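Study this one:
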Amino acid sequence: MDPGSPNTILLCTATGFYPSEIDVQWLKNGQPEKEGVAFGEELQNGDWTYQLQVMLETQPQRGDIYTCKVGHASLEAPVTVQWEPRSSNAAKSKLWTGAMGAVLGVVFLAVGLSLYLKKKKKKAIPIQQPAFMS
């Protein structure tokens, strides 16, 4: 992991389950993640159901797949939800600004070079052949 990259906190929330026994885990590339996992307090909703949040603090790398897996007696099979990284609007804005700046830079360079070459061509003094009399 790159020590300079920021950590990301992934949050998995299970709500409305009864009985209170539940298995919530984070998987990284299909394997249970042990480090950086924090379990919140199991809370009662007031209608005999419960809720639980499980956080994972990690540094996602390109190609990593993170999945929240929930197992409970009320489910026929565990439910899995895959985390999809999204780039922020600020990051997209910076990308577009950089791309447009590069395009404008190339355009100004081409125009400037074209004008310079035209001006240089005009200043060149044509060499005339001396006239010979016969």
Notes: The longest helix spans residues 89-123.
